[in-house]
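User: Show me sequence and structure for the first protein, then do the same for the second.

Assistant: Starting with the first protein.
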Amino acid sequence: MTFPLWSILPFICLLASIAIVPLVFRSWWGKNSNKFLLSLAVSFPVLTVVLPNSSDLLIESLTDYFSFIVLLGALFINELLGWRSRSGTPRVQTLDARTARDRRGA
């Protein structure tokens, strides 16, 4: 399925609202529920076209989104627990590779 050209307009509107609304309506933008309602209102026209014609696109997008969230969670936990406590310089990474190889007996 190819998307009609007008389907990029909600994305452009969303980007513009992220840039403009916090400056103009500061107190309204402070609530997460208002941001959620704005994103639903902007995405509704595209969903009304995509879902009846090709629901596979939505399932594929949700799968990609889920894998992205898992990746972000893994990176956050890695940073939170301090598993990467040293800087990622080439010298440190080379030394880590040597010590791992020495532990394996290679």
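Switching to the second protein now.
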Amino acid sequence: MHIHRREFLKFSAGAAGAALLASACSSPADHESASYEQMKTLKSMTGDVVPIKDEERWDRIEQARRLMISSGIKSIYLEAGQVCSISPGSDGVTANACSSM
């Protein structure tokens, strides 16, 4: 079966609209299911997590730097949460600075 891009977009928009309409029309009683009750009892998994110390952070950066050099990786992209400036140096890659966001 071959479907054209416009047909796909029309179908996708219609399906999204139908899903939005169905959720808007649901009653609060629909949310009182067993799974909803179970979700309300979930506890935080990060409550007792201790942040790593600066020394461990720099050890991790150094290990990543060595692995990058051995793999020929010149740069990396880090998602939000930790800001690190990693740039090329005379030895291949040098970590410059890290700070929390």
